[in-house]
Design goal:
Elements lengths: L2 E6 L7 H8 L5 E4 L8 E5 L2 E5 L12 E4 L4 E2 L1 H13 L8 E3 L3 E2 L2 H14 L11 H9 L12 H22 L7 H16 L3 E2 L1 H10 L4 E4 L23 H8 L6 E9 L2 E3 L11 H11 L11 E3 L1 E2 H11 L3 E5 L9 E10 L2 E3 L6 H4 L3 E8 L16 H14 L3 E5 L7 E2 L3
Parallel strand pairs: 1-10, 1-11, 2-5, 2-10, 5-7, 6-8, 7-9, 11-15, 14-16, 15-19
Antiparallel strand pairs: 3-4, 12-13, 16-17, 16-18, 19-20
Helix pairs in contact: 3-4
Length: 425
């Protein structure tokens, strides 16, 4: 059976966790393929909220095998705390598999992340300061420690001594910070973390391909989103990995021909955390209304999200970067109280019209959105269980987004709950 990818089409926080949870009902395995604990997925089940950072969203189903793939960077302390939280809520996490090729986030990654952001000052990138970027940098520099190194104390200590020699020089000579003890790290990672993680570590590439060979259904879950992609996002205000659908292959070990379904997910409006361009950004009372109604604060960081109108220019670009086969639209209910709703259908800059984002950052920072204004529906849609129950103006809005993006919308979210969605016919 082929695999399906769930990918964010905006700047993250589109509701990937909820969509993954929905699609996982019909799957056998859910694989997280990139990112770290800088991304949070929030799922509401029977009124209880589950905030997931590293564990794949499908863990809430007893029939799902959750897999953390090789493309993820893992802070063992965060992963174990998340597992403990799920266990306390009655969730069975014994089926979790963790790739031995995934890279570890180390204490020096977090310290360097904090220091770098502080020294950048007004040019700071707005990272979560959780060591994600430095961990991926070490991976690319070939000095990273991997999850499998936890199973070999001799190799772990040798690699740690090599990399920590360089990191401590940076900490002490450049940032005037105290050196980090290799012994303290080794004791925590080898004596505490390795003991608990060892039963979960394995050859996830072999497991995933074995599942495909047996005809099982696999869902690939990314973190962040298309425009936070290291190559295709609004650089440098991006993450340190590739959330786009292509990253699902490198981050899981599957080949391109193994994937036939790519579901993009978008909010009915758009949000962004941290710095970077945002052509349709709103401010004032309307922005505050969307923030309040949409609870637009980071699942992990608590940071307030910037908000704006739906951007079809970005959505078109996301559709072609990811080869979207369909799209899910979330948080349509947040727009329930509005008289009018704007949609960005193009950009203009220096007398030039753009249907897709301009490649040059200087132009992108100066574009003016071209809006079409649609009537609102002024009706509470959160009790809707069928698409036909939506007001005509809400259905017109969904149809307009389909037409202007060129992608069929297959799921519409009408509330935060697990069952609060409808499917257009």
């Amino acid at each position: 059976m082929p695999a399906t990818v769930v990918v964010g089409t905006q700047w993250g926080d589109e509701g990937k966790g909820k969509l993954t949870d929905l699609l996982a009902r019909d799957m056998d395995m859910v694989v997280r393929y990139q990112g770290g604990h800088n991304a949070g997925h929030r799922i509401v089940v029977n009124g209880e909220a589950f905030a997931l950072q590293l564990v794949p969203s499908g863990v809430l189903y007893p029939h799902i095998i959750p897999v953390i793939g090789n493309g993820v960077v893992i802070d063992p302390a965060v992963l174990l705390a998340e597992l403990d939280s799920l266990i306390a809520k009655g969730v069975d996490v014994s089926r979790l598999l963790v790739s031995g090729n995934a890279h570890l986030i180390m204490p020096y990654h977090q310290e360097l992340d904090r220091l770098t952001e502080r020294f950048l000052g007004k040019n700071a990138l707005g990272t979560t300061k959780r060591g994600i970027g430095p961990a991926y940098a070490d991976k690319s520099s070939r000095v990273g420690l991997r999850v499998q190194d936890l199973l070999d104390p001799k190799i772990f200590r040798e690699k740690l001594d090599v990399v920590l020699h360089e990191k401590n020089l940076i900490l002490t000579k450049i940032y005037n910070r105290p050196a980090i003890s290799a012994q303290a790290i080794a004791e925590q990672y080898l004596d505490e973390f390795a003991l608990r993680l060892a039963p979960m570590i394995g050859d996830t590439v072999g497991v995933v391909h074995g599942a495909l060979d047996q005809g099982q259904r696999i869902l690939l879950e990314g973190a962040q989103a298309t425009f936070l992609d290291l190559d295709h996002g609004t650089y440098p205000f991006v993450t340190s990995s590739n959330p786009v659908a292509g990253g699902a292959c490198t981050g899981s070990g599957l080949g391109p021909r193994d994937i036939t379904g790519i579901v993009g997910i978008a909010k009915a409006y758009i949000t962004r955390v941290g710095a970077g361009p945002f052509p349709t950004e709103l401010d004032g009372d309307l922005a505050e209304l969307l923030v309040e109604r949409g609870h637009e604060f980071g699942t992990n960081t608590g940071r307030r999200r910037r908000v704006g109108w739906f951007d079809a220019v970005m959505a078109r670009q996301a559709a072609r970067l990811n080869s979207l086969t369909e799209m899910a639209l979330t948080k349509l209910d947040v727009l329930d109280t509005l008289e009018e709703i704007s949609v960005c259908v193009g950009y203009e800059a220096n007398g030039v019209h753009y249907d897709y984002p301009p490649y040059h950052q200087s132009v992108l920072h100066d574009v003016k959105p071209v809006f079409e204004v649609l009537p609102g529906w002024k009706t509470d849609i959160t009790a809707s269980t069928k698409y036909d129950q939506l007001p005509s103006a809400a259905k017109d809005y969904v149809r307009f987004l389909e037409e202007t993006t060129g992608v069929t919308i297959s799921v519409v979210g009408v509330g935060p709950g697990r069952e609060q969605f409808v499917r257009p016919t």
